[in-house]
TrEMBL record:
This is L-arabinose transport system permease protein AraQ. The chain crosses the membrane at residues 23-44, 91-110, 122-142, 154-174, 195-214, 255-274. It is found in: Cell membrane. Pfam families: BPD_transp_1. The gene is araQ_16.
Length: 289
């Protein structure tokens, strides 16, 4: 032992200090993460299990045999998720793309265009986030009924095009871009239209991708607004379709878990491929307040 310590000392190797506080925090976070993911894993396992294995204890995490009938029922039964998927994709894609474009234009105006009362107007604009969206359901219902778009997807798409959070998030990024860039472009004869589309938008790709993912997930999981403004079953989105499926199959736990897995699967795929943009976008938009 003494020879080993001397050898290490002579080689100039220093022992690595152990940060017990960080180690303890890591263990706690890891245990918390495992506890949170167990119900999700049980959902997936149950969706591929036979009915007699639903309440089996200890849990059989790898089903044997693997049963696909419940997933087939979700996609081909009376409450087929195909129409729900198409409706949710239509609403979420149009809403997200429109919201990102309008939010970017508004954020550019609040960050790069000087006009009287700009900061006061922006504070007032942000204060609208304090208003619960449920308060607006009644006036929106009356307005949409008058416009003739109640019980249509436009009743969900139009309000989704305007987002205060998106304007704030993108504006924070635009404020972090050096002013010299836009001023140099103006000296060269470029207007705000050219600066916005050819300079600011390419620079803002991380934050735009981040907000697109976040906004898409909001619209995909929107249950309350769809419940208020949609009546016809052919117009139902994924949350309403899932609730309708559960109401019919309330004792078929395997099929309910298969339907839940189908509802959450797109969000998992988007997060797996977009988590890099989320981390980069959130950090970049927080550079300057």
């Amino acid at each position: 032992m003494e020879q080993t310590e001397v050898t290490h000392a002579s080689a100039g190797i220093k022992p690595i200090p152990i940060n017990f506080k960080m180690l303890s925090l890591t263990v706690v976070l890891f245990a918390t993460g495992i506890a949170m993911i167990i119900p999700f894993l049980w959902m997936i396992t149950t969706s591929f299990s036979s009915p007699q294995d639903v309440f089996r204890f200890p849990i059989k995490w790898i089903p044997s045999p693997i049963v696909l009938d419940h997933h087939i029922k979700v996609w081909t039964g009376n409450d087929s998720f195909v129409i729900y998927y198409l409706n949710s994709l239509k609403i979420a894609l149009i809403s997200s793309l429109g919201a990102v474009l309008l939010a970017a234009i508004t954020a550019y105006g609040f960050s790069n265009i000087q006009f009287k009362g700009r900061d006061v107007l922006f504070v007032f604009y942000l204060s609208m986030m304090l208003i619960p969206p449920q308060i607006l359901f009644v006036p929106q219902f009356l307005m949409f009924d008058w416009m003739g778009i109640y019980n249509t997807h436009w009743a969900l798409i139009l309000p989704n095009l305007f987002t205060i959070y998106g304007v704030f998030m993108i504006r924070q990024f635009f404020l972090s871009v050096p002013v010299d860039i836009s001023e140099s472009a103006m000296i060269d004869g470029a207007g705000h239209f050219t600066i916005f589309f050819r300079m600011m938008l390419p620079l803002a790709k991380p934050v735009l991708a981040t907000f697109t993912i976040i906004d898409f997930s909001w619209h995909w999981n929107d249950y309350e607004r769809a419940l208020v403004f949609l009546i016809d079953k052919d117009l139902f989105t994924i949350p309403l379709g899932l609730q309708s499926f559960i109401d019919v199959n309330y004792i078929d736990y395997n099929s309910m878990m298969a339907a839940s897995f189908a509802a959450v699967l797109p969000m998992l795929v988007i997060f797996m491929f977009g988590q890099r943009f989320i981390i980069e976008g959130v950090s970049s938009s927080a550079v300057k307040g």
